[in-house]
Amino acid sequence: MQLDFHYELRGWGGFRPGAGRKKQPGSGSPHRKRERVTRHTPVHVVAKLVKGLPSLRRPATAELIEAALLDKARRAEAEGFRILLHSVQSNHLHLILEAPSNEALSRNLKGLLGSLAKRLNAHWGRKGQVFQRYFLRVLSSPRQVRHALVYVLRNDWHHGAPREPFPDRYSSGREFWGWRDYPAWPRKLPMPRSWLMREGWLRHGRISIFERPAH
Q1: What pLDDT sits at residue 19?
Q2: Contact 130/53 with Cβ under 8 angstroms?
Q3: pTM for this one?
Q4: What are 200-209's pLDDT values in tens digits?
Q5: Distance between CA 160 and CA 210 in Å, rounded?
Q6: What are phi and psi of 155, to 5 degrees?
Q7: Helix, strand and coil in the chain, % to nearest 5
Q8: How many angstroms separate the CA atoms of 52 and 107, rounded?
Q9: Percentage of the chain with pLDDT > 70?
Q10: Is the CB of residue 135 less than 8 Å from the CB of residue 45?
Q11: pLDDT grade, residue 173 (50/70/90)?
């Protein structure tokens, strides 16, 4: 699976109209128009660390990240920003979110990553930038949603982790409601509201715990 991410985070910020390097003549294909986020379209986000930081895939670090996600999820759900699933890899974080607009997504994602950066810096005993950028893709069809779910929930296999018959411990996979052959645990994060995330993707079948993400 090729993920079509094309937004960048400068420092801890989000999208800024007109920001970033301007296109030069002859530099290739034009920038793509920003995809529109609505309450009907889930979003897959990847936030990447700056180089040289410790791995996120350590128990204490992953617990800190989960606590920050739960805290943000509780505070932001009233305005329609929902953190549905996550996967922690050594140098990046996958999120599947819902938001009512581009503005709500940008504002809440900026707040979430800023909070995470402060907590991680305190945990590591350092100062400075933590996230170098994020990429996102708006998921607008049942097939896109299913592909993103497999990619996020089994991203550990994508990065060479052993194939084991249970969800990645550094993800919210145990709480996923759509496994074909694994019982879902009680959820801590919110349930989805969009049709695509609740049931639309099921048109293409539930996900097996042994299913590998496509490249």
Answers
A1: 42
A2: yes
A3: 0.84
A4: 999 999 999 9
A5: 14
A6: -65, -20
A7: 35, 15, 50
A8: 27
A9: 84
A10: yes
A11: very high
- pLDDT tens-place string over residues 114-156: 999 999 999 999 999 999 999 999 999 999 999 999 999 999 8
Nearest-angstrom CA–CA distance, 60 and 195:
35
The Cα–Cα gap between 61 and 59 comes to: 6
Q: In the chain, what are the domains?
A: 43-204 (3.30.70.1290)
Identity at 89, one-letter amino acid code: Q
- Confidence at residue 213, expressed as pLDDT on a 0 to 100 scale: 85
Residue 122, Cβ density class (10 Å: 0-12 exposed, 13-18 middle, ≥19 buried)? exposed
3-state secondary structure (DSSP) of residue 132: strand
**Of 49, 28, 37, 8, residue with least CA distance to 98:** 37
